[in-house]
Amino acid sequence: MGAYGETLDLYVTKTGSDQSGDGTEKNPFLTIQAAVNQIPLLTSSRVTIWIGDGVYLEDVAIRNLKAVSITLRSRQSVTDVTSDLSVKVRSISFISSLGYQQVNGIEFVDQANISGQLKCAIYSEQSSYLAVWNCRFAETTYGKSNRCLFATGGSKIATNNNYYLNQNCIAEARNLADINIDPSDQGTGNDYGIIADNGTARIKVVGSKVKANKIAEVRNQGNVVTGKIIRQITNDDISDRDNITNVNGTIKREGDTVTIAIKYECNNYPSDASNTRNVILVPAGFQRDQSYPAYHPLALYRNETQPAGARAGLTQASRVVAYSGNGSSYISGTWVTNDPIPII
Which of 211, 159, 166, 161 is nearest to 181 (CA)? Predict the structure, then answer.
């Protein structure tokens, strides 16, 4: 079982042997799974499997193990994940295993041939904390069912400096699992960013270098945590350019709640106040839940005489409109959205 905190280093190379190897640096194993199989079911050691350069078309399974830590990593130190990595693996799974876990410096390939119906490069089920560092996911899975990272049953995954290119889904947290995508991660051409399906997915959208068509999606009772998403509202958002000028303000989203605060000038308001004037078009990602009534009221403040019946609101088409009269106006308010999380 080893002394507490003792290190256990196991080595794997493409010139090793699962028959005659013993996992030492001089006599390594040929496969990663052979090294995993040498880890005791219960150990107080810190276990590291050092993987030599090469392609390992294995579905590695770490199952029912308890250790202080288990790390699978490239023997090469990796910092640049935008180019091919020297160690390539098909998939790695942690199932009912406890302790700190880490996957470091590995590129994932042959994703079409992952065993099982749920195709995940890295899979964690009923396990502890898993750190995924310096890994590369660049074999195209767009439009398929693949996930780069998948956690379920209370497992936790956190990332650092990974690269995702043309992936179907970067990460899914299901059934009380928790996944955090770090701002140091990067990538483009992805379909889904993160999915929270009865789990919690976290991504700091502002400043994120991970791009996806659907950056975050909630399913069932899932929860997506993004931090505040703030966009400036400017003249580019004006829809009634004949009457409205100098639009300036912000639109903010926290979870599914949107808050708007804008100032604008109206210099050509018609004498017929029933002629509603569109002020701005609400951008995608901030539009309100269509289950609202046709007209959602917003607060309207004026610094000049206000015509009778002056009011502002949000239409079902998600346009901010106002009966405001000429001069400066201020509009503020909140609503709920079911839009996907926007890419900023």
Answer: 159
